[in-house]
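Components:
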Amino acid sequence: MISFVTKLGDSFLYFIRDQGRMGMFLLSALLGAFSRPFRFREVVRQISIIGANSFAVIFFTAIFTGMVLGLQGYYTLRKFGSEGMLGSAVALSLIRELGPVLTALMVTGRAGSAMCAEIGIMRNSEQIDALECMAVNPFRYLITPKFLATIISVPILTQFFNVIGIAGGYVAGVVLLGVNPGAFYNGIEQSVVNEDINLGIVKSFVFALLVVWICTGKGYFVHILRNAGFGAEGVSRATTQAVVLSSISVLIWDYLITAVML
Amino acid sequence: MSPSIIEFHNVVKSFGPQRVLDNVTISFEAGRTTVIAGGSGQGKSVTLKLILGLLAPDAGEILVNGQDITKMKLRELNRIREKFGVLFQGAALLDSMTVFENVALPLRERTKFKPPEIAQRVRKMLTQFNLEEHEAKFPAQLSGGMKKRVGLARALMLQPEIMLFDEPTTGLDPQITMEIYRLFFNSQKQFGYTSIIVSHDIPKVFNLADQVVLLNKGKMVTFASPEEIPLSTEPQIVSFAVETMGHIYSSSKMEHNI
Ligand SMILES: Nc1ncnc2c1ncn2[C@@H]1O[C@H](COP(=O)(O)OP(=O)(O)OP(=O)(O)O)[C@@H](O)[C@H]1O
Ligand SMILES: [Mg+2]
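Structure:
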């Protein structure tokens, strides 16, 4: 009984410390963006790793998501005789929800996991210690460029997702199922307003921050991660945790942002 | 006795229930070479990390040049760290950078030298370590001995006052080991740094030592010279030495040359 209480207390203290650590981590990473010299080349390199290399994945996810939306939407709307609304249904679902969420999830799987593993390995092989010993701030050097690159890339990828997704919906609805193309465009034009686009943009920024924060943070603290073990096993557990936690956080914040901004 | 540059006062460091350093008081003298010896997992690397401020002690003071680093802000700590050069146990080269970039890193980050000046200094150092042909390789493409040499070159780039070496020769063949020792000897003569060497390579490494520290079960014992260990009349120290170094220790009486 006492040992149970001690364990519970330990877990609670660990949780609090973990939150504190992650909070300080976020602060240091963001402050790093305002320090000189600005590592422009490293940010560009990270954008090409995190952003540019994700285009293919995003393209395929988006085109098929759009086509499924077109297909499902068509059969649902036909029951009410309103196939003309298809364009609006596809565009709104993508811009408000699916674009930001699916982009964030794909970036987590493709780039977030890689970031976590990379930083975890650097921690375990004392590369981060070495940076600190050379009096190089590891945040400015390693973490901040990844933050900036993700926060720049994800909103752009999200917009790309939306465009490709709508094209997918067009292919499924108009080309394959014969919805009137004029009606499809009209539906989009008349129903999508600025608020929808703003909502999507806000989401994509928040998701980008969540993903990069959790993924780099889990890697950075791999050596004090609880129940993770050390060495390669520690890195692999940290990476799994980072992907799971990022994905769940994205979905929770999706709900919260929608609830607040509606 | 020269003045001490690093001092531990009653330092305690535990990980969970495991007490790695138990009330350790010790000093390292300026301009001289101290060898820290002890079995695997006894806390040698932890001791170096405490000196660098990478780990904080649970209790006690750690003085570098008379200043307590355990109470310092990061900014002050970084100023102290500039005095140090470190060769990590696994060399700790940055994976994503070439040999050249690794060695250039301290100059790029800590000095205002222009790129041509940096390139010239890096090439000079690489030549000294016989690495000039490998400057474009990445750490994953290097052998263990080459990594250590690159790590050493990087550590010496800013002409440190204090060099810390964590097992510089472990896992290397005898020939490379000899080469590394020669590099130590020459670079110390050239730069005049204080050095602290953690090593299993007993008794060879004792030829470099002015002072030997044995670490066992959280306790440290200092010997003014390696010759003193076998001469010690205290049975406690002798058993400590035998326990720490085992049979290798007894052979140190016979072998005198590297
Ligand atoms: N971050 C850490 N968390 C928990 N325990 C640690 C940590 N770092 C070191 N230890 C423990 O402290 C002890 C001393 O470790 P240290 O790395 O200093 O050993 P060492 O003397 O350098 O051994 P080796 O010769 O094998 O390198 C070990 O038992 C190790 O498990
Ligand atoms: Mg060690």
